[in-house]
Amino acid sequence: MTINKNNPPPVALITGAARRIGAAIARMLHRNGYNIIIHYSSADNEAAQLADELNAARADSAHLEKMNLLDSAQLPALIASAAQRWQRLDALINNASSFYPTPVDEIKESDWENLVGTNLKAPLFLSQYAAPHLQATKGCIVNIVDIHAERPMRKHVVYSVAKAGLVALTKSLARELAPSVRVNAVAPGAILWPEQDMPASTKDSILQRVALQRPGEPDDIARTVNFLINDAPYITGQVIPVDGGRNLNI
Ligand SMILES: NC(=O)c1ccc[n+]([C@@H]2O[C@H](COP(=O)([O-])OP(=O)(O)OC[C@H]3O[C@@H](n4cnc5c(N)ncnc54)[C@H](OP(=O)(O)O)[C@@H]3O)[C@@H](O)[C@H]2O)c1
Known about the structure:
Layout: E1 11-14, H1 20-31, E2 35-40, H2 44-57, E3 62-66, H3 75-85, E4 91-94, H4 109-137, E5 140-144, H5 157-177, E6 182-188, H6 200-208, H7 218-230, E7 239-242
Parallel strand pairs: 1-2, 1-4, 2-3, 4-5, 5-6, 6-7
Helix pairs in contact: 1-7, 3-4, 4-5
The structure holds NADP nicotinamide-adenine-dinucleotide phosphate.
NADP nicotinamide-adenine-dinucleotide phosphate is lined by residues 16, 18-22, 40-43, 68-70, 95-99, 118, 144, 146, 188, 190-192.
């Protein structure tokens, strides 16, 4: 998308944007001229600080939306409110995610509802409700998936299935919403370690399988999202791994 300073700024809704990778995406798109709808669920302080930071850099350029994405009855209101804030919506970035292990003999229906709810169901319905707004602006959707959508993560059956579904959703919606809306995905490798405890030995063994021998940074994901939105008018239905070469099967 070419941003013309005489036009009103384009608007991006980023789910789970208060912290970590979502916040890096918010800052990156904001630096590139977007007004940002910061969706979050529990991170009130981080969300408010990020909104203050963006609004200080450019007045009236960031807006907060708090919502538990598992409350699917509220999803239409999230999109309506986001699109209403500046009377347009140009990009939906489905970044929010729950993540925890579900060994096969311990999976409960509530795990399915939680992990599929955030990683697949919410992106599907947010995309459905956002589609008319994105069609009006020739906008796009970027889904944040995972390299483990392709090669499932041990002991993470439900999460891996949900992200695999999100890859399928990306390709399916790219087909359904073309030619007016592009839909792509970014598949991070090891970028930020999960906030739950992870032994140092596990981290070492993961990094040994990364060709570049180090974790990535949130900005590696943010730059790729920005590329797909602003600099890739002929790319749709693609999944771009950003994993330091982990998929080389080292
Ligand atoms: N970190 C990595 O190295 C890595 C690797 C592969 C893939 N990814 C993918 O990249 C994306 C960002 O990763 P991350 O590590 O930054 O994510 P994260 O910190 O695990 O989660 C991002 C946000 O999702 C929100 N969220 C979780 N459950 C929610 C719910 N029920 N309703 C609404 N929001 C909810 C949380 O918002 P609140 O904090 O406001 O509650 C959280 O801050 C995710 O899609 C993840 O699967 C990350």
